[in-house]
Automatic annotation (TrEMBL):
Family: Belongs to the fatty acid desaturase type 2 family.
Keyword Coiled coil: yes
Subunit structure: Homodimer.
Species of the source: [Mycobacterium] burgundiense
Entry protein name: Acyl-ACP desaturase
Length: 322
């Protein structure tokens, strides 16, 4: 008979595993200082401090790099919302509470170093950036009304979501570094991406333990996250425009989401090899498999459209050069 447990019971059962994974994380993580990754010698004052107001021609970042850096930073800026969600779903007691605190402190460094870099290098409009931060953090991030109705307070849904989300963020940061055309930015974003990878491993291990503990319940959460996944930046100003630009230029696109995020995690959990699901769980797994096939079709469609668009743009540039 397949076990079914409450959130509180699952948290209690997994607490020793959370402690073990917390200790593992602390043993492998690297402490670092944001100020060591910022090119301070490029800096000069802005208008409020007697310096010069920002102008667009000062930025050495392409439009694509600017869109990606802003999206990544505003995502990190919403840390108060993520901490609130983590505290509610994971508990602030025992190893869970220690993990939430440590994870929050590490994530906070990402926002610090990204903002310091952009301001010192004068990479983006600082006034527009601050307005966007105020709007995004004020709005916050949390479950949609539909998600609340469907899952209420669901620890399993949360632990599955952050596994995929941390890996997606790692991919986005790493690829953003490559398009900045600045070795300082690339090194900085490699450092941030390394943190995100370690966070993903903690959550992935915890979700794996949850699947062993309550297979059907955990599978439902995993499938729901995959089928309804949304990046934490949704809702920020210009998110759709920036997201389209990032996808178009290979920073985070449907192919990367499927091949570099969704499929590797599902393989790690052996979702399609396990034999401990009930008949109901088997049916839910079949629904997930069908969704993955649909995602694959969406990937092909997106790539065909993108290839046509990029070819048109290339022809236009060639015509203008003549």
């Amino acid at each position: 008979m397949v076990r079914k447990l409450s959130d509180l019971a699952i948290l209690a059962e997994l607490e020793p595993i959370a402690e073990s994974n917390l200790n593992r994380h602390l043993s492998v993580t690297t402490d670092w200082n944001p100020h060591d990754y910022v090119p301070w010698d490029r800096g000069r004052g802005y208008a409020g401090a007697g310096g010069k107001a920002w102008s667009e021609e000062e930025s050495q970042l392409s439009a694509v790099a600017q869109a990606a850096m802003i999206t990544n930073l505003l995502t990190e800026d919403n840390l108060p919302s993520y901490h609130r969600q983590a505290g509610a779903y994971f508990s602030l007691d025992d190893a869970w509470g220690t993990w939430v605190g440590r994870w929050t402190a590490e994530e906070n460094r990402h926002g610090i170093v990204l903002r310091d870099y952009l301001l010192v290098a004068r990479g983006v409009d600082p006034v527009a950036l601050e307005r966007a931060r105020m709007e995004h953090v004020t709005n916050g991030f949390g479950p949609t009304a539909e998600e609340e109705e469907r899952h209420k307070t669901d620890f399993l849904l949360s632990i599955a979501y952050v596994t995929f989300q941390e890996l997606a963020t790692r991919v986005s940061h790493r690829n953003t570094g490559r398009v900045c055309n600045d070795p300082v930015a690339d090194r900085l974003l490699q450092r941030v991406a390394a943190d995100e990878n370690l966070h993903m491993i903690f959550y992935r291990n915890m979700c794996a333990a949850a699947i062993d503990l309550v297979p059907d319940q955990a599978l439902e959460a995993v499938a729901s996250v995959v089928e309804n996944f949304r990046m934490p930046g949704q809702g920020m100003p210009n998110f759709r425009r920036n997201g389209v630009m990032m996808a178009k230029h290979g920073i985070y696109d449907p192919r990367q989401h499927l091949d570099d995020v969704v499929k590797p995690v599902l393989r790690q959990w052996r979702i399609f090899e396990r034999t401990d699901f009930s008949a109901e769980g088997e049916q839910r797994r079949e629904q997930l498999a069908a969704h993955l096939e649909d995602l694959q079709r969406q990937v092909f469609k997106f790539e065909e459209q993108r290839d046509r668009l990029l070819a048109r743009e290339a022809r236009k540039l060639e015509a203008q050069a003549v």
